[in-house]
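cron nightly-structures :: item 1 of 1
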Amino acid sequence: MKKVAIITGISSGMGKAAALYFKEQGFEVYGGARRIERLVDLKEQGIHTQSLDVTDAISVRALVDRAISEQGQIDVLVNNAGYGEFGPIEEVPIENAKKQFDVNVFGAAQITKYVLPQMRQQGSGRIVNISSVGSNIYSPLGGWYYTTKASLNMWSDVLDQEVKQFGIRSVIVQPGLTKSEWSKIAFENAKKNLVEDSPYENMLDKTEELFSKITFSEATAEDLAKVFYRAATDIKPKRRYYHSIVDHGMVLVARTMPNTYRAVLSKMMKGI
C-alpha cells in the first residue's frame, strides 16, 4: 500500500518541489495553496490538489477529510505554507504581524490537530515542520518572521514529546537561503511596511543588499525537497534537519555564541 503525504503551500518553491519528489518516491500526495491556478501542472502529474488557505479551518478540514476518505490513512504531514512579513518592528502594522503568526504558526497547528487522530489510530505518522535558520540567526527587519519560526520550533519540540507515545514524531527542517521568490517577496513586504519618510529606509537598503550577497549556502527547491523527504522517512528521526553543514554551523554559532554572532552581523552591516 502506498504511503500518503499532505503538503501545504505547494504552488511554488520548496512546497512544489517536495510534492513532485514525494510523488516520484511513490507517495500519494495531497496538497494545496491559495493560488489554485498554479496547481494545474501538479494535478496533471497525479498530485491531488485543491484550494487551501491554512488560516481557514474549513479549507484545511476539507483537505484532510479528502485524503482520509480516499486513502484511509495519512503517513506524513509537511507544514510548508508560510511567508516572510519583513519590515521594521516599529512600523509593521500589528495586524500584519498577527497574520504572520496565523499563517506560519497557527496554520500549522490547525492542520496538525486534524491529522493527529488519524495518525494516532494508525499508531504511526510524521509531522515535518518547515522552519528556517532564521529561527536562530537574525538580521534587521525580519523580527516578526524570525519570531514565528522560533515559535514553530518550540511548538514542534513540545508536540514531539506529547505524541511520540503514539508512534508519531514531530520534527523541524531549517532551510537557509534558497534560490526562490522568498527573499524578493519578503523585501517587497518590507517596503510596503515602511511609513512615509521612514528613518529605516537606509537600513532596508543595506539589509536587502546583504541578503543579495549571501549566496554561499543557497540551495535549490529540489535540494530542500530531498531534505523534507529524509525528515519524513528516516526510521530514527532527528529533531532538526539542515541542507548543508554551513546552515547548521551558522545556527550553532548563533545559539552557542550569541555575542559573536551579533558582532559579526554588525560588522557585515557596517561594511555595506
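cron nightly-structures :: done
The first strand starts at residue 4 and ends at 8.
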